[in-house]
Amino acid sequence: MKLRPYLNFGGNAGEAFRFYEKHLGGRITAMMTFGQMPGPSTVGPEWQDAVLHASISIGDIEVMASDVPGNFQPMRSAYLCLGVDSIEEAERVYGVLAEGGEIYMPMAETFFALRFAQLRDRFGTLWMIIHERPMPKQD
Question: Which 3 state secondary structure label does DSSP give 104?
Answer without folding.
Answer: strand
